[in-house]
Amino acid sequence: xxxxxxxxxxxxxxxxxxxxxxxxxxxxxxxxxxxxxxxxxxxxxxxxxxxxxxxxxxxxxxxxxxxxxxxxxxxxxxxxxxxxxxxxxxxxxxxxxxxxxxxxxxxxxxxxxxxxxxxxxxxxxxxxx
Length: 129
Prior knowledge:
The chain is built from seven helices and four strands; from the N terminus they run H-H-E-E-H-H-H-H-E-E-H. By secondary structure, it is mainly alpha-helical.
């Protein structure tokens, strides 16, 4: 199958525009690089990283990535920092259920319509995927 040259040029233009570090810094895709699986090292510390960590990050970031970036990016970062403080791995944080200490039961809002309890339940569901 041959691709139209105008489509190729458009794709190259878009890649040059969006696949740059300055775009990623303000995009939820930045969190896919939180854990560096290629070297099996956590991007911000020297801890082991797994594919499961990247998959959990991708799922949680996608789940919260709606609305204003200035609101949801800090919330995603907050979850990852909690996981790192507890387990240095979001997948371990979920598997060991350490998230329960960080998200108490209650109706207090975590982000938009997500309460702390609801967010805790999402973490529980993610753990079981």
